[in-house]
Amino acid sequence: MSSSAFDFYTLPLRPAEYAATLGTTVVIAPHPDDESLGCGGLIALLRQAAVSVHVVLISDGTMSHPNSRKFPPAARQALREAELRQALVELGVEAPPICLGLPDSQVPSEGQEYFQDAAAQLRTLFAATKPTTVLCPWRRDPHPDHRATSGLVRAAMDGLPLPPRLLEYVVWAWERAAPTDLPQPGEAVGWRLDIGSVLGLKQRAIAAHRSQLAPGIIDDDPTGFMLSSEMLAHFAHPFEAYLEVM
Predict the structure, then answer these.
(1) How far is CA 191 from CA 9, 15, 23, in A?
(2) Which of 48, 50, 76, 172 is deepest in the core (most CB within 10 A)?
(3) pTM strictly above 0.90
(4) If 0-12 CB within 10 Å is exposed, 13-18 middle and 19+ buried, where does residue 7 land?
């Protein structure tokens, strides 16, 4: 694949009904909003098919507005977790999210402190929920926390006797991927999922993350993060892209 988004747009399209074949699914999100952006349509389709979905939030999400005094770290964490819970309601997920609370922007990579502990937590969760499928960010999605999260998931799955299927969703790779960030020849199979029937639900889930959307509700940190209209445009299409390493 080249570095252009055109490659994602031309991946084979699978019908909405394909979602139900994934079975019980655990969705791993580095930050609150990644679940809605990357795979909100798939989550909604799974729930409409009465398939169980569990969502795991890896980081505390506090670094989106690190200079806010109105919302100190504990308040930012509570706000973002509340937004996540609302987004999951929009998508039809009944189970509350499981929050690991790792530091935002410092999710550990292999060899770093807390990596093995976090991987063990995920392994225990997988053993308890017995998912058929696990969703996590593409392993070279251009955000350090996304890459670290992928590494945690793969380390956790390596310790399971019967690892679930791993599907990797795209967030920042839509517009920031360098050629080396994308799948290399023979590395992965990519496909798109038709989410046209639930696109409205996905958009409502994204909108639930109000702190990340202009004008925002954290108004005392002008350097804080906001999802740009250009970035959001990638998630307004009636399909989502998934990658599966061969």
Answers:
(1) 9, 11, 18
(2) 76
(3) yes
(4) middle
Domains of the chain, residue spans: 6-245
Q: Which residues contact 23 (CB under 8 A, 6 or more apart)?
A: 51, 131, 132, 133
Structure tokens given for 97? 């999210």
Handedness of CA 79, 230, 36, 87 (dihedral sign): positive
Q: What is the chain's length?
A: 246
Distances in whole angstroms, Cα of residue 137 to Cα of each of 78, 141, 146 = 23, 7, 6
The CATH number of domain 6-245 is 3.40.50.10320: yes
| Cα distance between residue 205 and residue 188, in whole Å | 29
